[in-house]
Design brief:
The chain has 3 domains: 224 residues, P-loop containing nucleotide triphosphate hydrolases (Rossmann fold); 145 residues, no CATH class; 37 residues, no CATH class. It has 20 helices and 15 strands. The protein is of the alpha/beta class. A 6-stranded antiparallel beta sheet has the order 2-1-4-5-6-7. It has a 6-stranded mixed beta sheet with strand order 8-12-13-3-14-15.
Length: 555
């Protein structure tokens, strides 16, 4: 359960520390104080997307801490798999900087927002007004029913087979084209393969040809430089560098025994002599290459031009052209052997269709069973919530195989006796939707291990005895799990085990929002304010006291 929430520099909250009870926690809000701030903080700490705009003006960052107790074995195992050791309490931290960057921590160690989401999805379920609106979308109804029937594993098994079936059908369509289109494709591939194969391309060829072309274009300059270098080394009318270096080495070598330093120098001169002799051989070899080369630069230019044209058509480099050739050869081979492959795929499709149909039929049967129990429990919940005349039913159509099976499901209601059930979007008011959604949440609550449920204005559009019934239902639900409810209803607030009040004030020209826990007398005035407005009367206070006492609260 959520034990504590600490907020710093979030919107108009400078600092707030909120402690929750394990039962029913109710938050009421002073006019204009902004109840959404607390919900925004909970959304942020659960890893949901946030914005830099929530950082308090003039501050560098907003920081949120959440402390959870009794997280359960499943969450502890998840934390362990992530590399976080459970330590009794679970402490989540999120920091939102004014430039929009965020930092997250789990038990003091760095984490990602996605890891916060993964952990918190098993800890907290937030129900807001948008959830009620989701009831108007029939596509959501089948997911609600599957959750109630605990059919997620069967849905996953079916989805896996259906995914394989769709891939097989796509492969069949790719092969099973008309004969004229197939022949055109084969002709094109054959032409491309022949054109590339005839070129006899080799990896690295283009670079070698470009280098050879550069040499030939500068052959006269290179030849002159080589002749000049050879002459300097070998000498012509006078001794060259090689002969002079040899003489120097010999001279020093004759006196080397007389001086150790001269011996080292003589050795170095000998090394230089042999290195220069090797260089002279390299120069001679290059000269011989020039003199014997009868290569035509035009042929090199033609070859490079061919490579360039192939690159324009089939890839940005010789390697990419060769990869295109390989792919074209494989595709042509696949088309030529397509009839056999098509037979194999058709057999595979038949087998997968049978398997998917069997799984879909089982899902349909399980969904029918689940809805019968679901309908009974929803009816019971709605009767308690002051909606005894509402008929809750289901439009269930069975059709072709689809991503979720054969079933098309839509919840229907009738709010008046004798009237046929119709889609919720055509009948249900905002208050009715809120109560139906609460009924569904209560029915689904027993199907999961989530111990903290947050209801954001579940009383929208509800008043009088309907609100009182919602309060009673929330009180009952809080016996087995923690409930946190933001409400504008005095009837619901009266059932709170912990009543938190969000108020707003101004100090030194700046707005501050605070959250405080109310005692019995403070609760009387707050509930009276909700009943009668800002001008609280003695009668309203008396009514508030009676509501608190009748709901089980005491001084």
């Amino acid at each position: 359960m959520l034990k504590e929430l600490v907020i710093e520099n979030l919107a108009v909250i400078e600092k707030a520390q909120v402690t929750f009870d394990r039962a029913l926690n109710v938050l009421t809000v002073e006019t204009g104080a902004g109840k959404s701030i607390l919900i925004d903080a909970i959304n942020a700490i659960t890893g949901n997307r946030t914005s830099k705009e929530i950082v308090r003006t003039g501050e560098e960052r907003a920081v949120i801490w959440a402390v959870f107790q009794e997280v359960g074995p499943a969450v502890e195992a998840m934390l362990s798999d992530m590399g976080y050791q459970p330590e009794g309490e679970l402490v989540l931290n999120r920091e939102i900087q004014k430039d929009g960057r965020t930092r997250c921590r789990i038990n003091g160690r760095p984490a990602s927002a996605s890891q916060l989401r993964e952990v918190c999805v098993t800890l907290i379920n937030i129900h807001g007004q948008h959830d009620s609106q989701a009831l108007l979308d029939p596509e959501k109804h089948i997911h609600i029913l599957d959750a109630f029937g605990a059919l997620q594993e069967q849905v996953r098994d079916y989805s896996r087979v259906y995914g394989e079936l769709t891939k097989t059908i796509s492969a069949i369509r790719a092969i099973d084209t008309d004969e004229a289109a197939k022949q055109r494709r084969m002709d094109l591939l054959s032409y491309q393969i022949e054109e590339i194969t005839a070129a006899n391309l080799r990896p690295g060829e283009e670079e070698a040809l470009a280098e050879r072309r550069a040499i030939l274009r500068n052959s006269e300059k290179l030849s002159a430089a080589l002749h000049e270098a050879a002459g300097a080394i070998d000498g012509q009318e006078q001794p060259g560098a090689l002969e002079l270096l040899y003489s120097a080495a010999q001279s020093l070598g004759s006196v080397a025994p007389l001086a150790e330093q001269l011996a080292r120098t003589a050795e170095r001169l000998n090394d230089l002599y042999y290195a220069l002799a090797d260089a002279a051989e390299d120069i001679k070899a290059s000269l011989e290459g020039f003199s014997s080369e009868d290569e035509d630069i035009d042929s090199i230019e033609g070859r490079l031009d061919l490579i360039h044209r192939l690159k324009l058509k089939y890839g940005g480099s010789v390697d990419e052209v060769l990869e295109f050739l390989k792919a074209a050869q494989e595709e042509l081979s696949a088309i030529e052997t397509g009839d056999q492959r098509l037979l194999e795929l058709e057999k595979q499709r038949e087998a997968l269709t049978r398997q998917a149909s069997e799984l879909a039929d089982r899902l349909t049967a399980r969904r029918r069973e689940a809805f019968s129990a679901f309908q009974r429990q929803i009816k019971s919940e709605l009767q308690f919530l002051n909606m005894p005349d509402v008929a809750f039913s289901c439009s269930h159509r069975v059709g072709e195989l689809g991503p979720g099976g054969r079933d098309s499901i839509e919840f229907l209601i009738s709010t008046n006796p004798g009237e046929p059930p119709k889609p919720m979007a055509k009948i249900a008011s905002g208050g009715e939707l809120s109560r139906i959604m609460l009924a569904i949440k209560n029915v689904l609550a027993d199907k999961d291990e989530i111990k903290t449920l947050i209801f954001d204005e579940v009383d929208t559009g509800v008043s009088g005895s309907g609100a009182q019934k919602i309060g009673t239902k929330l009180k009952q639900a809080s016996a087995s799990r923690q409930i946190i409810c933001v409400t504008h209803s005095a009837a619901i607030a009266a059932y709170a085990d912990c009543h938190l009040f969000i108020s707003k004030g101004v100090r030194e020209g700046r707005t501050y929002t605070s959250v405080q826990r109310l005692g019995f007398e403070q609760r009387k005035r707050e509930i009276a304010r909700i009943i009668s407005g800002d001008l609280v009367s003695d009668t309203a206070i008396k009514n508030a006291e009676e509501m608190l006492l009748s709901s089980g609260s005491s001084e």
